[in-house]
Amino acid sequence: MQQLEQEKPYFIGQPGVPWGETEKAAWLAVQEVQRSYQADVVSVIEGFQGRFDVEQYNTLEYSNLTGENYPLFAIKNKNWVVNRPLVLITGGVHGYETSGVHGALRFIQEHLEHYSQFFNMVVAPCLSPWGYETINRWNPKAVDPNRSFYEASPSAEACHLMSYVHALEELHNAKVFAHFDLHETTDTDNSEFRPALAARDAKPQSSWNIPDGFYTVAHSEKRELDFQLAVLAEVAKVTHIAPADESGGIIGSPAIAEGLIEYSATELGLCMGFTQAKYVTTTEVYPDSANATPEKCILAQVAAVTGGLDYLKSLKDEPNR
C-alpha cells in the first residue's frame, strides 16, 4: 500500500489539524444536490403499497443543515409467520453507493414475495437519503454512518435503523438471523473520500488498489464461509469476482477466499455488525469497471441476496431463531 498524496493538502482545513465545526461547515457548504431521493427512491417505495407493508420508521431532521428533512422507509412482507427466520437487507448506508439502494429496491420488486415463503423479511433500501442526493459517503455532519453502528452513535442514520430493528425484534420475539448490507467500492474512495477522511481526522490514510470486480466482506467473528461462497457463486453468474492484488489482498485486507475479505464488524461500528445475526455479509460492487453497467451492478446486488437466501433455505438443520 502507498500513502495518499500529502504534498497537495485537502482543500478544507489545515494539514495536521483535525476539523472543527468551522471546517465541517465549510465542507457542507460545497456539497450539491445531484439527484432526487423523492423521485428515484420514495416514488418507487410508494408503488410497493398494497403488495407489502411499507413503514416510515423515522425522519432525518436535517432542515437546519440542508433545508430538508428526509423520511426513512422499511418494506416488510405481509403475513409474517411466527418462528420463520428474520432476514434484514440494508442499502444506501453510504448514500453515494448507488446499486446498493437500487439493488434493494429491485429485490423487493422481483423477489420479496417469493422469499417470504421461507423468511420474514425487512428491507431498508436507503439509510442515507442526503448522501444519496449529494453522492456522499458522509452525512451532513461529516460523520460516516458505516462506522457509527454503536450505542450513543453520532449518526442519526445508524441510530434510527438500530432502534427500528431492535424494536422489531422485540415485537416479534425474534432476532435477526441473516443480514445483507449492500455497498459499492468506487474510484472516488481513493480520489475523494479517503483524502477527506485524512484531512478531517488529521491522520494519514493508506490508499490501495481499487479491485476490479465484486467482492464481499465477512464478519471475522462469524465468517460462515459456505454462506459467503454461496453469495459469490451466484454473483459470478452476473459479473466478475474481484481478484486479489499482488500482495494477496483486497483493499488492504488479506483475501481469505476468492473475492472475500473480513473485518471485525461490530468493533468497527459497521452496519453488518449491529445485530446478533449468524449470517452477515457486506457486498461490494465496482461500478467504475470497464465491464460494468448500472444495470449489471444492480443485478449483482440482487444475485448476492438471492444466492445467500437460497443457501440459507437449503440448510438441513433448522436455524436457531
Automatic annotation (TrEMBL):
UniProt family annotation: Belongs to the peptidase M14 family.
Pfam families the record matches: AstE_AspA_cat (PF24827)
GO molecular function: hydrolase activity, acting on ester bonds; metallocarboxypeptidase activity; zinc ion binding
GO biological process, one term: proteolysis
Native source organism of the sequence: Aliidiomarina taiwanensis
Protein name according to UniProt: Peptidase
Cofactor section: Zn(2+)
Occurrences of domain Peptidase M14 (ranges): 33-321
Keyword entries, A-Z: Hydrolase, Metal-binding, Zinc
UniProt keyword annotation of Metal-binding present: yes
Source organism, top-level taxon: Bacteria
